[in-house]
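Students often ask why we bother predicting the structure of a whole assembly rather than each chain alone. The short answer is interfaces. A chain on its own may look different once its partners are present, and contacts between molecules only exist in the joint model. In this exercise we take two input lines together and write out one structure for the complete complex. Read the inputs first and try to guess which parts will touch.
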Amino acid sequence: MNNCPLPIIDYNKIQIGHGGGGKLTNQLIEKLFLPEFRNSFLETRHDGAVIDFGNLKLAFTTDSYVIRPIFFPGGNIGTLAVNGTVNDLAMCGAKPLYLSVGFILEEGFPLEALYQVVQSMGKAARFAHVEIVTGDTKVVDKGKGDGIFINTAGIGVVESGVEISPKRVVSGDVVLLSGDIGRHGIAIMAVREGLDFETEIESDCAPVSDLTLDLLEKGVEVHALRDLTRGGLATALLEIAETSSSQIRIEEEAVPVREEVQGACEILGLDPLYVANEGRFAVFLPENHAQRALEIFHSYPLGKDACAIGRVVSSGARGMVTAKSQLGTNRILDFLSGEQLPRIC
Amino acid sequence: MKFIDEYRDGKAARQFADSIRRITTREWMIMEVCGGQTHTIVKFGIDELLPEKISLIHGPGCPVCVTPVELIDKAIEIALLPEVVFCSFGDMLRVPGTKGDLFSVKAAGGDVRIVYSPLDALKYAKNSLDKQVVFFAVGFETTAPANAMAVYQAKEQGIKNFSLLISHVLVPPAMEAILSSHQNKVQGFLAAGHVCTVMGYEEYEPLAEKYKVPIVVTGFEPLDILQGVYLCVKELEEGRSEVENQYTRSVRKEGNARARQLIQNVFQVVPRKWRGIGEIPRSGLGLREQYQDYDAEKRFHVSGISKQEPSECISGLVLQGVKKPHECPAFGKSCSPDHPLGAPMVSSEGACAAYYRYRRFSTTQGAAR
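Now the answer. The structure tokens for the assembled complex follow.
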């Protein structure tokens, strides 16, 4: 048997951070999954695979949902499972069509809760114009699961001529952000840790495919799309900078953060640029298309706070992302080693 | 946001930076003591605004960084016990001991929980009498009152399944250790505002006088830091060495009397080991005789564990501003943020970690100081 290719100095057991979307996740992908599964689709490091089928391009993606708490302000695990996969397809420039769903349920999980989750999934699917067309249910012994885990996979079609990929990002591209950041992460943390804030913060969980499709249909030249999930805006930008071998500069002041999210981050010592989102994405596009794109964004409730936050530049180190602070100084954004943790001081 | 934005105003910041530039005639090395201040400096790029003649040295005031490796080993040993619920502030979970960190204990099946207050840990203890709840009490004078309160309440309420694994350290002895070193290059200090909120700043006056250094009690927002640097440079340029208070909105000279009294009642001053520096006499807090039952080291018999810091690490010299991180033979080789050997590489804002991040790009990028 071959030895595990991860360096021995690293963890020899799976840590929570391996699923955090940061450095450890990347290590798993690069050192364990990619070498074994290598193919041209995986190498694009995109949110999903885009496969040519004659005249048709098919987008295909999958995601698993293991969130605690199962219900949170603004949604539940079911809403996430539909919207997350719909959004991954949208990030390929695809029109999402069909989803599969796999439930892993723990013995003893209340049927009433399952009913609520399933209802939310149906509603979310109808809202995003997708159908759940196949599925699977497994039950594990009590204590062997955390109530409910959901996996969804999705397929969609990409119009011919549309090519969305981080590799298309070039210097001069403008970076647009679809709205304010950090609400999902803080909403979850508030429930999970029992933190009471004066205003209840609701998750931003939403499907974004109507918006992305509209951008494409109206002829906006989109180079790349990336939804902001676990590692937040910073991680999404770092991934694009790395895959496209470019440097991205953003203006921190341009990034919309709601006051209640900002306040929670100040108290907990968290950086909103790294806090999770579930209905936000960044667009990379040529400067002369930015204005038109913003007009389209602003015609949707979901995109009403959309704005330009930075651009791709040719000078400087590849794979680097810098943020200009309110003071006019620059800092380098880096991948987190694991989960973002509340600080002592 | 109120109470935040006014202390991050770009125009005011540039005005302060200009004032600092105007009064600076010589090279000065100033140490900001607290990790929270370092965080602000790194996040807002404050050093970029300062004249080149001013060097900021990141001090030993990050509790995550200075907790000795053997204490992490003790924490891991305790947390692995099946009857233990081990509670800690979040960022301690990633600090490496000699064989792993608390995250790896969690992966191995240990019950490790992140809490926001030691009183939350006490609540767990009250609600799960079949478990031993241990709180990892680290930090400076700032976290001491809450930890003292947890122990005090545990005793008052007769909660016996609760204990503290303590690595409490004190700021003034660490400053004195740096100042008394013959290699010391630090000429002025920004003292830690929140430590002084609890303790006041009377105890810094003998230090300023003995070592002829200005000490400015400073807050944590960008304008606080810039004003602190301004006051410190002004003293240096004028040849003064006084204790001044920049952080007047939070700090009184005598501190918080009730918090100090609580610390006094529960804790006593003891020698403590500091990661990267070694043992400093009278530099930490331990439980008083009447609270010894709540000492996790004794309860779980781990006092015997003793570990040496990696010998190639020069973090002590880096923390004193004697050497730059890249002058260390281990820098970027056996020591990196993912596998830190010493204190300043552990925390993301530690001097070595900050340097590492910048250097990764410095070959292709001119100036990202």
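Check your guess against this: The first strand of chain A starts at residue 49 and ends at 53.
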